[in-house]
Design a protein that fits this description.
The protein is an alpha+beta fold. It has ten helices and nine strands. Helix 1 runs antiparallel to helix 2, helix 2 crosses helix 8 and helix 5 (211-220) packs across helix 7 (258-280).
C-alpha cells in the first residue's frame, strides 16, 4: 500500500488533478485495487486523492459485502458516487452461451442499490483504507525496528567503540608495569581501576534487550577521566578518584556521529508510534469501528492482540 499520512475524518491523500468530465465523491476499481476520494485540503480546496489498497484489504471489502451486492458469480468491478447524487456500478456476471455450451463473463450496469446502500458502501471503502494505512504503518515500523537490532550501524558502532577501547588500554599498558615509578602514592592503583572501568565499556548489542536500548546506551555512555586528569582536577586529592559524576565525561576519543544520533531519534519515534497503536488501538471513530466489525474489514489483517480488541466482536461472530 502507498505510504500516506492523513486524518481519517478529513480523509486527505496525495493530490491528483480533478477530473474534468465528472466530479466523483469516491471511486473504486476492485480489479486494480484503486480507490479515488474527493476531499478538502487544509486550505479548503477540493482535491482528488488516490490510494492502492493491499490485496488482503481489497479481498476483505469484497468478501464482506452482502451477496446481493457482490458474490462469486456477480461481481462489482467499478463503483462511483458523484457529487450530484448519481452513482455508477459496473458489475460482471456469468452468462451461459447456449450456442457454444460455455460460460462467459458479461459486464453490465447495475442500478439496484438504494441511496443508503451507496452511502454505506462509500463509508466501507473509507474505513478499509484507514485500517490498511494504519496497520501497514504499524507493521512497517515493527519491521524496521527488528532490522535495527542487527543492522550494520549497530555492528559498526560496536566495532568503532571496541577499537577505541583497545587503543586506550594499549596506550596505558606501561602505566601498570612493575618498574613504572609512581608520581604519588596510589597512582598505579588508580590506573588499574581506570583500565577496569574501560573494560566494563566493552558491551555489544547482544547485551541489551533491544537494538534501541543499545543505541541509547551507546549514545549516552561516559568515560572515566584518567588519573593524570584527576590529579589536575583535584591537586589536593580531597575527592576520592572516580567517586563523583564530574569524573565521568564524554571522551573526545570516542566517535559520537550524527547519523547514530539521528538513528536513535528515529528508532525512539518508531517505538512511540508502535506503543500508541498497541495501547490505544487504531485511530478510528465509532462509525468506522462498527463498519469494520460488520463487514469484517480487519479479518486476517490485525494480528497484534492489543489492537485486535477493537474487533473482538467481529471475530466472535
Amino acid at each position: 500500500m502507498n505510504r500516506l499520512n492523513f486524518n481519517p475524518d478529513e480523509f486527505v491523500f496525495e493530490k491528483l488533478p480533478i477530473p474534468e468530465d465528472k466530479k466523483a465523491v469516491i471511486e473504486y476499481d476492485s480489479r486494480q485495487r484503486l480507490i479515488l476520494v474527493r476531499t478538502k485540503n487544509s486550505d479548503g480546496e477540493i482535491v482528488f486523492n488516490s490510494v492502492f489498497v493491499s490485496e488482503r484489504v481489497n479481498q476483505n471489502i469484497l468478501d464482506g459485502l452482502p451477496d446481493t451486492w457482490h458474490n462469486e458469480n456477480d461481481k462489482i468491478t467499478i463503483f462511483a458516487l458523484y457529487d450530484d447524487g448519481e452513482y455508477f456500478i459496473e458489475k460482471e456476471k456469468v452468462k451461459y452461451d447456449f450456442k457454444t455450451n460455455t460460460t462467459k463473463w458479461v459486464k453490465y450496469r447495475n442500478k439496484d442499490l438504494t441511496v443508503n446502500d451507496v452511502r454505506e458502501f462509500s463509508e466501507v471503502l473509507k474505513t478499509a483504507i484507514t485500517i490498511d494505512e494504519q496497520v501497514s504503518e504499524y507493521e512497517a515500523l515493527k519491521d524496521m525496528l527488528e532490522v535495527t537490532k542487527t543492522s550494520f550501524y549497530l555492528e559498526a558502532a560496536y566495532q568503532n567503540r571496541i577499537t577505541v577501547l583497545e587503543k586506550l588500554l594499549r596506550d596505558s599498558d606501561w602505566r601498570v608495569l612493575d618498574d613504572t615509578p609512581e608520581l604519588y602514592d596510589g597512582e598505579k592503583d588508580q590506573w588499574i581501576l581506570w583500565r577496569q572501568k574501560i573494560r566494563d565499556l566493552d558491551k555489544s548489542p547482544e547485551d541489551f534487550e533491544t537494538g534501541t536500548a543499545f543505541l541509547i546506551w551507546q549514545e549516552t555512555l561516559e568515560f572515566p577521566i584518567r588519573p593524570d586528569q584527576y590529579r589536575f582536577k583535584y591537586p589536593e586529592f580531597d575527592v576520592e578518584y572516580l567517586s563523583t559524576d564530574d569524573q565521568y565525561i564524554k571522551s573526545p576519543d570516542i566517535l559520537v556521529n550524527k547519523s547514530g544520533f539521528e538513528l536513535l531519534n528515529e528508532c525512539t519515534r518508531y517505538e512511540a508510534i508502535i506503543k500508541s497503536y498497541e495501547d490505544n488501538g487504531l485511530v478510528l471513530n465509532e462509525a468506522m469501528i462498527d463498519l469494520a466489525k460488520r463487514y469484517k474489514l480487519a479479518k486476517n489483517i490485525v494480528t497484534n492482540a492489543n489492537i485486535r480488541h477493537l474487533f473482538e466482536q467481529e471475530e466472535g461472530q
